[in-house]
Amino acid sequence: MAPNRRKAGRPARRSAAGLRKTDSGTTSAHDVRRHRHWSATVTTPFSFHALLLVAAGGTAGSVARYMMSVWTMQAAGMPKFPWGTFAVNLTGCLLAGLLAGLAERHAWFDADTRLLLMVGLLGGFTTFSAFGVETAYLLRRGEWLLASGYVGGSVLLGIAAVLLGVWLVAPGAAQG
């Protein structure tokens, strides 16, 4: 096998400057930013280091979720609508958009940073599993209008928050 070739399925190597090395050599920082996919998809091999990054981010995200949810519910006066989870979901979507925009704009957003922030922090912070449970609870109580508003608002406003976050840090990136 030629020295510059990598096996299929292996992630591209990075130089000391964080630039991707491909079969044809090192790409520029501009090319890396322009072609980088900003999702939380992880291509880093399983390692103890990766677990520590996800655990550290997840711990911080879970604590932040709990604190924000409790504060929001107290501020709302404990209504029937699950405002705490709603606020956390929208905030999580906005943060995901901000981080996604930063990932597109800055070459320093490497695999470790993505593991810590997107998988760990936001994975611990966002609460769409609670969203499903609370929606089912509203439906079981016969609160169809509240459940519809909760689902529609979470999805539509969540997508809008992601696009807003990307636009705030990388104008034009949210369009394509």
Automatic annotation (TrEMBL):
Region (Disordered): 1-35
Alphabetic keyword roster: Cell inner membrane, Cell membrane, Ion channel, Ion transport, Membrane, Metal-binding, Sodium, Transmembrane, Transmembrane helix, Transport
GO BP, one annotated term: cellular detoxification of fluoride
A Pfam family matched in the record: CRCB
Membrane topology type: Multi-pass membrane protein
Residues passing through the membrane, by range: 42-63, 83-103, 115-139, 145-170
Reaction(s) the record says it catalyses: fluoride(in) = fluoride(out)
Family designation: Belongs to the fluoride channel Fluc/FEX (TC 1.A.43) family.
Name this polypeptide is given: Fluoride-specific ion channel FluC
